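Human: For the file, kindly provide a plain-text protein record giving the amino acid sequence and the backbone structure tokens, at your earliest convenience.
Assistant:
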Amino acid sequence: MKLSVIIPVFNERQTIGQILDEVKKVELEKEIIVVDDCSTDGTRKILKELSGSTAKVLYHSENRGKGGAVKTAQSQVSGDVVIIQDADLEYRPEDYPKLIKPIEDGFADVVYGSRFLGPHRVFMFWHYSGNKLLTWLTNILYNTMLTDMETGYKVFRAEVFKKLKIKSNRFDFEPEITAKIFKQKLRVVEVPITHYGRGYEEGKKIGWKDGLVAIWTLIRYRFTD
């Protein structure tokens, strides 16, 4: 089973080399698709030096956001399973085997890696509370039992991923695809992952305004396509 790893990148000069090395070390058949979302901090220069036989690198001429980067990669995947990998070091590629196992075993169409079921860095109470609020709202609106809707580790059977009609360009991508997954009655499994969250001084980009947009997105897609 071939894995397609999509890595959206925006201004991750400090971590892009290490995360690519860690993805490459995972002993699974895979392709790596990096989408640089118009980085301005030197990330693009590093990617041009690293690109080649081990990674396909696509470049945006303007910043479109994480959802926009995923949409760019959507038509490029050739694997059987697709995983979205953030370019920072919060999510660990060594979790790939357990993330794809429910799909390999035929029990899932989509797998969510839950940060709150596995080992995680203990900090940022308000960020944690915001995530819990969004997950609670998801469970009410879509009659689900998720523990972590906003997780960056979402894994798909490729045929499911390619059919997703993604409209969101930025962080509202996460609640949009969650809404569409559950409205399609797809089989979703959660597995625990290891997570080392970053603070804003370390480069975290999501904020409270993104949370408000996520709430609106969850409500909107509950009642519209």
